[in-house]
Specification:
The structure holds 2 protein chains of 2 kinds. Chain A is of the alpha+beta class. Chain A has 6 domains: 1-89, no CATH class; 127-231, Beta-Lactamase, CATH 3.30.450.20; 250-357, Beta-Lactamase, CATH 3.30.450.20; 363-436, Orthogonal Bundle (Helix Hairpins), CATH 1.10.287; 445-597, Histidine kinase-like ATPase, C-terminal domain (Heat Shock Protein 90); 611-744, Rossmann fold (3-Layer(aba) Sandwich). In chain A, the strands form 5 sheets. In chain A, strands 7-6-11-10-9-8 form a 6-stranded antiparallel sheet, with helices on both faces. Chain A has a 5-stranded antiparallel sheet with strand order 2-1-5-4-3, sandwiched between helices. The radius of gyration of chain A is 62 Å and the shape is rod-shaped. Chain A starts with a helix and ends with a helix. The model of chain A is unreliable at 606-612 (pLDDT under 50). Chain B has one domain: Translation Initiation Factor IF3. The longest helix of chain B has 12 residues, at 20-31. Chain B is globular, with a radius of gyration of 12 Å. The mean pLDDT of chain B is 87. The chains are: A alpha+beta, B alpha+beta.
Chain lengths: 745, 84
Amino acid sequence: MPMNLAEFYQMVSRAVKDQASALPDHEVGPELEPLATLINSMLQENKSLRFDHQVAVDYIREKINQMLVVIGTVPLRPEELDEKHLIALDPLGIISRSFIQILEHSNKTNKKLRLARDEIQAIFESVGGGLLVMDAERNILASNNRFREMFFAREDETVGRTCYEIICGNEDAPGETCCFKQMMVRGELAVQPDWRFGEKHFSVVATPIKDRSGKIVRCVVLYVDISELVEARTALDEERERLVLTLESIADGVIATDDQGRLSLINSVAEELTGWSAQEAIGQPICSVMMVEDPKAPKSCGDFFSDIMLHKESRVERLDSTILIDRQGIRRDIYLSAAPIHQQDKTITGTIVVFRDITREKRLDEELTKANRLESLGIFAGGIAHDFNNLLTGVLGNVSLAKVIADPKDKIYQLLNQTEKSTFRAKGLTQQLLTFAKGGMPIKKLISARDLIRESVEFSLRGSSILCDLKISDDLLPIEVDEGQINQVLQNLTVNSLQAMKESGGVVEVSAQNVELGNNQEPLLAPGKYVEIVITDHGPGISPKIINRIFDPFFTTKENGSGLGLATSYAIISKHQGQIRVESEEGKGATFFLYLPASKRELAAKVTAGNDSMSGSGRVMVMDDEEVVRSVTQSMLEYYGYEVELVNDGTEALAKYEQAMLDKKPFALVLMDLTIPGGMGGKEAISKLLAIDPQALVVVASGYSNDPVMADYLSYGFKRVISKPYRTDELISVVAEVIEEANRN
Amino acid sequence: MTDQAAKLIEIDTRGQVCPSTLLVALDNMNRYQEDLYSGKMKLLIRTDNRDATTTIPDTAENMGYEIEVRQQDGFYEILISRPE
């Protein structure tokens, strides 16, 4: 039976509520049938719509979840947001808007990264060195052009190869110098300051790139070609070495300081002069190392340093009177010059001090000054002495003649005797003056220095309470000297020593030995072999105030001294190409050093001319313008058996000699005075005499003279030389020897 | 504009878990994007969900914000401000 409308409504409501896809299969009757069909199609459509809605919601939920997972969180739980809220809250909108922000930020970041990448690429290529990027297995990931230029051709491909394969050769065993290996071992940046590849030098730096766990995943290796730098450094080292060698080889002391005055350099000469080794001296203030004293204006070393550093003086020089006191307190005269060290910008970075030991030069200078002073005084003294000697000859001659005339018992005879004695003393003094003066050219003879020293010293000490410690070396070389002069020097010095020790008593030490003097070892002396005679007394010594004047003529500290003893000694030794000097400390005595050139010749065996056989015979001609001399000489010769003929000058001598030859009564020997004032002297006469008789035996006689004939008589044809005044025995032995030699030949 | 002048928006998400915490945070970052970027505003999110201390900062960083996470007594504060 068909449904009524209420029943139908109930059925439709239930079907809608149940979301049925169709109405239950009930007979609804023909009236409601069209409506039931419409409702059925609507239910069908509703079901289809609900299905579509669920699909859309699932889709949205799925997409939301996908996005949530992408964004890093967990998916939505279904109960968390129902469909209603899903739409209302709009998570999709939220997320997508967030994604827009993320994308915008990402775009900005990408832009920055692109810029950064371009910058890095530019740096990669423009950096001065070669760059290599590798992974931890040394596979090359990138390299710049400079790298390829360094090791290969620019266009060569390096990516995909290994560094050892293309640089070190194809071996997988990195050496100790491998920067990569060092970096891997240490886990940090490694530097190889000088790595050689062929002829080239490289500085290599390997920088690790680590991941978040600290593991090295990549590395950047930078190669900088330092070949030029190494070359320059080598050149600089060589230059420095050369500079050091130069500084070491120059004869001056060199010290450099920094701007604080601390030592930065000292060469070996400076080390020697200051007594500081470089090791000790470097870094020390210059004043501790260079103790300088200026006696005229006492200044310390700091002055020249501050003069330069503070007062900006361009150069400080101390030419003399500057004394350097070394570490042991030894004082040296120095020449000093100091200058600032400028940098290129003209700032002063320190000082350089150059100094030289001029102790020796100073002494030499003093010696020369002394020698010059003595020489000028000598010329003056010589002039006086010469005239004085002539006057004395007259005085002496007349006194001796007066004595012959006077009665020895008369009082006048005593007065004459005293006059004669005084005249002899005056004569001795004149002799000293003559010797000291230029005129006293030594008449040199080869003699034994040993005998001369012993005899001279022993003679001087005779009768004295002072003892002598005489040490003469056995092999003492002979000397070629004027025996009389050197004897005089030795006696002067010995007597001085005696007098110095008159009060204290004691021993005079005299020693003599051979010495070999080098260059500059003794100022004024040429290098060579010398006989050194050292005479030491232990008297009061010589005060430093007067020590430089003791060789001056007429300078004396003795009440009755003539002031000629040491002056004469000085002149004599100088004329013998020797040197005399003194060292003394007040209160501790004095030491005289005497140097005479040793002779290369050997001493001949002594000719012993027996005194008993002194008498001779034969005719001897005596030529002298002085009557006194002639008569004295005649007496001497006649006493010993010679026949004597006297002549005034050369002209007379030649005439008489020729006549004697014609008369067959020739002269055995002629004794000639060297100079005859106003007449022909010996110098001229001998050549003429030898022209007449080449066999003529001629001896030249003279007082001290500066005529070179006396020193070089043999070449003029004289057989011997004899200096006036002479003793009888001197004269006779010379005459006898010459005649005997001639007879032997 | 100085920090003192920046307005602070405080969001309390305590009791919520991810992803809703994150979504709330993102929603606010979207909403105030302009003010956050210009520095007029800062966002302070309180959460007691530990996961959110990773998810919110990670996402906010990707969006270009500056993040500071502070642990408080029993919860976290996540301060979101404009990038430096």
